[in-house]
Amino acid sequence: MTDIRATAADAETPEAVLDIPANPPRRALGLHREIDRVWRNAPGWWGHVTAVNHTSLGLRFMATALVFFAIGGILAMLIRAQLATHEGAFLDTELYNQIFTMHGSIMMFLFAIPMLEGMGIYMLPKMLGTRDMAFPRLTALGYWCFLFGGLIMLTALFFGVAPRDGWFMYTPLSSAEYSPGINADVWLLGVTFVEISAIAAAVEITVTILRQRAPGMKLTEMPLFAWYMLGTVAMMLVGFPPLILASVLLEIERAFGWPFFDVARGGDPLLWQHLFWLFGHPEVYIIFLPAAGAISTIIPVMCRTTIMGYGAIVAAVVALVFLSFGLWVHHMFTVGIPHMALAFFSAASVLVAVPTAVQVFAWIGTMWKGRPQLKLPMLYILGFFLTFVMGGLTGVMLAIVPFNWQAHDTAFVTAHLHYVLIGGFVFPILAAAAYWMPQITGRVRVRGLGEAAFWTILVGFHGTFFIMHLTGLLGMRRRIDVYPENPEWVWLNLTSSIFGFVMAIGFGLFLLDLVLQARLGQRSPRNPWRAPGLDWSLRLPAPSYNFASLPGPRHLAGGDQVALSLSRGQGLLPGAPRGTRELLVTGIGDARPDHVAILPGNSHLPLRLSASIGLFVLFMLAGLYWLTLPALALVAVLIWVWGRGMAWGADLPPIEVAPGMTLPVHVHRRKTLAYTGAICLLVANGTFFATLLFGVAFLHVVAPGWPAPPMGNEDLGSASLVAGAVVALGLGTVIARLAERARLAGHAVSGPAVAGLMVNFLALGLIAYLAATAMDDPTRHARDALRGVLAGYIALHALVVSGFAAFAVDQWRRGELTPRRAGCLPVWRLWQDYSAAVALITAAVVILQGAGG
Amino acid sequence: MTWADWSTRFLALSLAGPMIWAITFSAVYGLHGIGCALAWPEVDLAFLSLHRLAMLAAWGVGLLACGLLLAWLPAGARMRVWLPRAGGWVGLGATFFTLFPVIVTTSC
Amino acid sequence: MKRFAPLAVPLLLAGCDGPASTLAPAGPVAAEIAWLWWAMLAGAAAISLLVGVMIAMSFGPPRETSTRRWTHGWGLGFSLVVLTTLLGAGLWVGERILPRDDGAVEVRAHAFMWGWHFTQPGEGDNMVETDGTLYVPVGQPIDVIVTAEDVIHSFWVPQLAGKMDAIPGRENVMRFQVDSPGTYRGLCAEFCGLGHAGMLFDLVAYEPGDLPEALLPNEPAEEGAND
Known about the structure:
The complex is a heterotrimer.
Chain A: H1 8-11, H2 28-39, H3 44-50, H4 54-83, H5 93-128, H6 136-158, H7 183-211, H8 224-256, H9 269-302, H10 310-323, H11 339-351, H12 353-369, H13 376-399, H14 401-407, H15 411-441, H16 449-473, H17 490-520, H18 560-567, E1 581-586, E2 593-599, H19 605-622, H20 628-646, E3 655-658, E4 661-663, H21 673-702, H22 716-745, H23 750-773, H24 782-813, H25 825-852
Antiparallel strand pairs in A: 1-2, 3-4
Helix pairs in contact in A: 4-5, 4-6, 4-17, 5-6, 5-7, 5-9, 6-7, 6-19, 7-8, 7-19, 7-21, 8-9, 8-10, 8-21, 9-15, 10-12, 13-15, 13-16, 15-16, 16-17, 19-20, 21-24, 21-25, 22-23, 22-25, 23-24, 24-25
Chain B: H1 6-37, H2 50-72, H3 79-99, H4 101-104
Helix pairs in contact in B: 1-2, 1-3, 2-3
Chain C: H1 5-8, H2 10-13, H3 28-58, H4 67-96, E1 105-112, E2 115-121, E3 127-131, E4 133-137, E5 142-148, E6 153-156, E7 163-166, E8 172-176, E9 182-188, E10 200-206
Helix pairs in contact in C: 3-4
């Protein structure tokens, strides 16, 4: 047993050098044709429906996000038109409220998040030296969910029933009582639908970064962009579940009357605020980190040098990932929380500026170290510096409690958040667009237009938002449509409005530049910036398969020679001789080759699955609650079909990836990509559960309407039902292990699998019986409503693990579980363990709560 | 096993410091909320109220844990060794900085 | 801090007046916060300038420069010194303006969609209820207890103090004080639906010896909405 600290070997011995011999060279064109035939999308219209390729989908994510950006921008112009004068009669209040709510929601959920997902999905496989994301069909599923969720929200806007309670949806304003109609439901269901794509992207980006890096690309030496994205997706896995939980609870309250936020029945509107900002503040850093990753990539290239302080930047990312979860209360400084609690969050909000400062100064240091060149990406980066530094400084001001009490909910905050989001996200994205467009289109841009767009956007932006700080300090509140009593704000608002339109023209020029470049640009040389790294070792525009042969340890620096040798098949796993989409799966740390994964090809299953989820959402919106059950059944069936697609009928022979190096195919490995993905999903799921427990504790301790009324049917009988369900799920964990043991010994797996199915069904039955006979009416009090949710959560898990057991039975029947093939058993075991654990914790919580009154 | 080499240890150790901060921060914030709800500030112990004492104790444990972590981790310039220590410092600094209001501000 | 104000700021303040301006404070709480703002503005301007100069100086031939100086010196050291100072100042001001048990005048503000109902002391111990106008004496600390009828609102008189949210089921307390008699603009600062923009009120400050008519007995304002 070695010391679990970094051992002496870590500190001193030279790194073991991974050397993999080269494959024999082939003709690049022939190789290209062979591999493109396997990886490319189907031709024509159908190809768009069935595409799962990360280059296509990454671009599609970004293009769709740009369309939403344009729509959100038009809404912003309507807001500015309304506010240009103090008696604006341009929009009525109802419409104005819908428009500012949709402006915020679109920019956050339909522009920023999908844009960064698209950037990660498009860039990461190219930078890490692989051919696709870990779960291509999941990429497509995420896209369709994003698109359909966005379309639902847009349709609502078109018909004048869009959400109108602000993008933060504070309850009770968004409750059924004060917001009747479907407006609020559109937000809750639409955004949650879109968030499926965020969780999907987070899972697969994590797996891709950890397990698909080119052999020899150590975790500690991977491109900074990958570190930034790893931080981002880790935050998404932990940050989105609170929002999803909050939306689910509010939707249940609206639809079925279960109180969670209704103060008269033991709920608390502050619970919504806590859950919302527990997501909402990390969200800001989720948006900023990928942009900072792009900056860390572009600055060294523009300055002809290497990045300064790699280690310090990684440490800063780690610090940001954690600290950003300790700031959320600074959105709630005025809700009446005691000063000491405010002080904790004030201190954390101030402290988060430190890792940000470390990065900013490391970037400036990099510029000192090199020779900055004022090319277009660098211009945008200067715009970023100017804007983001000022936004950061006003952010620190807002972290100071007394000042926040004055500035909160005024135009000062509007100005601040636009400085941070446009400075910290949009300018870097524009820099990234200028930098990577040649790779996307294979063309160079038309001279001059980009610079014109930059200056117009810069002048327009600062003209709009700089004076808005003053507007706020002069007392202008957010979200008002008229200000007849304050003529002193007119010149400020009019100026903001005029420059707002200048900024809009700037973005128009930017879009025009993109279109002209794609249509009319000259062909770009292969690596126009003379940049290092694998992402510029591709043929331009990027081909469907990225690398005709995969880079190995000697290719990591990139460059022309590397590009040539990879395109001639001298790297690993050249071409597609078996007619399947193959890539290398490597170890997390040293990136040693572990096995070959065969990815699924083009498929319309993602579209069908997301459409059936969409059907569920539409039935919920329409209030046809009984019809949601068949929709959910359809979802379950399609997930089963999806799982079938992961199971391979026949054993597959090992594959020679390089002379003398033969690797097994993923079906013969226990720790596949899917296994790692299942762990990531459980992290998100665990956060969801932990947040739910936070909700129980919060209401119990803080909400005014407690203690709850006495429980009706709390007796030995119901306690034994709970205990029975826990024991049944616990038995399942033993059975899942027995199933694995039987498989390894070559015995029949069917016995344990059927037993697993039975105990999980038993658990499900016990919970259902408990709910039907012994539980108090969940509409009575928040405690009973929360118990209902907890029971539902455990029941859902009992159902999921029943599904795994049933799938194992099916796999055994088909002969897919052998001593050499683990099938679904490892993932079943993970989920069974998790389900048993949450059931046990839930039972303990319910008992404790019963004992404590 | 190749897929989980030194990386598991490396990632766990690198996140240990910030994780201690996260746990201490949640614990002190939780104690603050529970204490205010149960009127702990009214319970006078020798020099402090029960409320402040409970929070100070949790804070102290967090600081101590970060200190021990830093004392235990070896030093070195290689990223694999360096980042866990940097994480330890992040944890220590953040625990100190974000929770020092326990000493100076009004509690409920 | 008021004593410094007359020296440096009148010129700056010329553009900062207005009935809802946080930069035209009319009481000690708002004055403390305004002072904090001007200090932070000066600091922020200096830091922006510093970063701007650093960036401008980076243009030119490559040069040797120490990584530690940037990441540890500027990144950690400089930022921590500035931020610690600022946080200290913020907490100090925050502590000074908190309500405490010192016999301050207590008034109640009850928010509803879309208006305000106030309860304040009139003659003697007599509490008077009013709609849309809050009456307070000058020169004494006032604790306003803020409550809500329906959705979340927020009590804000920019010239006097920060905001305090009115949340169903809770009683929040905020302190302020008015220096001189007059009428001040009050607003609802938390978005509360269709009537949000128009949800205004007046705060009338009077000399303690000179009770306004509305607070004298036999006023119709006495029969406000019950709560």
